[in-house]
Recover the amino acids of this structure.
């Protein structure tokens, strides 16, 4: 499917993010650093830093956290279409870590402003979706409540009516809903999409199988083919240290990754997706899409924060430089 339209529109929740220093533990009274984080806005920021028009649609509380989120995302060059909800707060995410590494992420998003997103929020911005080259959604949003569960398919339907390419990252959050609840909903969204991103366990979830790990590209390719047969479209299977596989039609493309020392893996999957979509917007081949996705995902893994280490074009060139210091 040839891409038409302009840039990428994303739809989903962004939360205030509290991050402690490497020590002490939260229970010992750690001072916290305040930031923001959300899968869909991470993708939008990554694309904006690479020079692509991007839009983020959501809802935030009428509070200081909501103001921070809107300000930060706009400052990154992303068009923000987020209503302010005076009756519900902005969601909150807290990272726990030891020795400079993230060890756990806790979410406080029940009853948040974004959990009250509904079809009306989508219809309000239908023109933005219809005019985009790509609509990107995740499996997080439908888990937030009945309204978001209606809103995501509505956004996808607008995209499909207007030849907007639909990208879907499964992004299953077991803390939000069970596999039994999530599986059919996420599989349906994958069938409605042109491109599906998943990890091995997420692929098994969509297939209704018991989760299993993948130890080789060959095993990954078999699983990718099973998923593609079930949901259609292009399937990208993320395999961690093994890299990734893009299955387009009958052709499987392997994208190995370079070994790294991961500091904070939270946000790396979103960075990978942003890189893949950036190359896709430039009419890149699946191999080129995987290469850029792996480079950007790896860069984000090596620094703290959900999105702060997402590279600009100039920084991406510097990653390929032969010297470690620019003088």
């Amino acid at each position: 499917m040839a891409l038409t339209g302009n840039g990428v529109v994303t739809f989903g929740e962004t939360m205030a993010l509290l991050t402690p220093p490497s020590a002490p533990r939260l229970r010992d009274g750690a001072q916290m650093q305040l930031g923001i984080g959300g899968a869909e806005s991470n993708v939008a920021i990554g694309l904006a830093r690479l020079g692509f028009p991007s839009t983020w649609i959501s809802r935030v509380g009428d509070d200081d956290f909501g103001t921070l989120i809107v300000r930060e995302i706009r400052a990154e060059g992303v068009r923000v279409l987020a209503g302010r909800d005076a009756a519900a707060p902005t969601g909150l995410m807290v990272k726990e870590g030891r020795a400079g590494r993230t060890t756990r992420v806790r979410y406080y998003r029940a009853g948040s402003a974004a959990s009250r997103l509904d079809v009306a929020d989508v219809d309000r911005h239908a023109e933005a979706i219809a005019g985009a080259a790509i609509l990107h959604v995740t499996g997080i949003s439908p888990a937030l409540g009945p309204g978001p569960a209606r809103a995501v398919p509505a956004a996808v339907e607008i995209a499909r009516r207007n030849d907007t390419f639909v990208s879907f990252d499964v992004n299953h959050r077991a803390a939000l809903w069970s596999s039994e609840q999530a599986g059919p909903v996420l599989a349906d969204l994958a069938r409605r999409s042109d491109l599906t991103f998943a990890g091995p366990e997420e692929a098994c979830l969509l297939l209704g199988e018991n989760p299993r790990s993948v130890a080789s590209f060959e095993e990954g390719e078999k699983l990718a083919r099973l998923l593609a047969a079930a949901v259609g479209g292009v399937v990208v299977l993320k395999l961690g240290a093994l890299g990734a596989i893009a299955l387009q039609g009958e052709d499987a493309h392997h994208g190995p990754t370079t070994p790294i020392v991961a500091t904070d893996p939270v946000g790396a999957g979103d960075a990978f997706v942003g890189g893949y979509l950036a190359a896709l917007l430039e009419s890149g081949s699946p191999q080129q899409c995987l290469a850029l996705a792996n480079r950007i995902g790896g860069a984000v893994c090596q620094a703290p924060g959900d999105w702060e280490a997402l590279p600009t074009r100039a920084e991406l060139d510097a990653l390929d430089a032969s010297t470690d210091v620019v003088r």
Q: What stands out?
A: The mean pLDDT is 90. The two ends are 44 Å apart (CA to CA).
